[in-house]
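Lab manual, section 2.4: Encoding a predicted structure.

Procedure: take the sequence of the chain (262 residues), apply the prediction step described in section 2.3, and record the output as C-alpha cells. A sample record is shown.
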Amino acid sequence: MKKTVLSIFALAVFAIILTSSSGGRTDGRSGSPGDANLDCGQCHGASTASSTSMITTDIPASGYVGGSTYNVTVSVAETGASMFGFQITAEHSSNAKAGTFATGGNSEIYTVTADHAVTHNTSGTFGTDSKSWTMTWTAPSSGSGDVTFYVAGNGANGTGDATGDVIYTDSQAAAEDVANGIAINEFANADVNIYPNPTSDYFTIKGVDKRATITLFDLKGFEVKSFANSVNQFDVSDIERGTYLLYINIDGAPTLEKLIIQ
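Recorded output:
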C-alpha cells in the first residue's frame, strides 16, 4: 500500500511538472496592455517588479524601417536563480500587435500567438544568475507608426514552487523611421540644417528664408504644430517624443525634413 501511495504521489508530481510553464506559455503573458497586463506572476505567484534593462535591439535611434528585420534580445538577471523564462511582444498604441517575431534559429525559444510573441522552451530555461535569448522581429509596413515592445521575465530557484521566484517586466518604445521614404527623399534640401536633432525642447533651422511657413506633422500626416518663422528657436517641449516630419514651404517650394523628439 505504501508503494502504491508513493507511486501515485510521484505521478501527481510528474503531472504538475508537465502542466507547468517550464516550456513557456502559449497565451499572452508579456505584461502588455494587449495581453490584459498578464505576466508570469499569475502562475508563479510572485510579486512583479519593473526593470529597465531587459530589452535590447539593433533598431537604430532614428527608428525602424517598415518591413525590415531586426535582432531583439531579452535578458533576465536574478542572483541565485537557476531557471529563467520570458515572453515578449510588440504593440501599437491601440494595443494591436505590431510586426512578427521569428526564432532566428535559436533552439531555446519558439513563437506563439500567430508569431506576434516569443517565449522560452524547456531547454531554454537553464542559467546561473542570468539568462538571455535572441530572436528576430520584422517591423510592420511603412506608415504604421511607433510601436512598443513589452516583456515579462522570471528568475526562479528551481524548487518547483513559487517561493523565491522573482518576476520582472519592461517596455521599450521604437519609433518609425520615415527618413528613407520616397516622400522625404523627393523633398530633401541639402541647404537646410536642423539642429539639435534629436531634440527634447528646442531646435533651430539654418538655411531657411523668413518667408517660409513651418509646420510639424506626425507620421500619419496629421498636423501637430505650426511655427511662426520670426523666432530663432522653435519650441517642441510640449510635444510627445517620437519621429515627426517638418514641412517647410518657401514660396511654393517645399522641403520635408525628419525631426526626432526624445
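Check your result against the sample. The chain has three helices and 17 strands.
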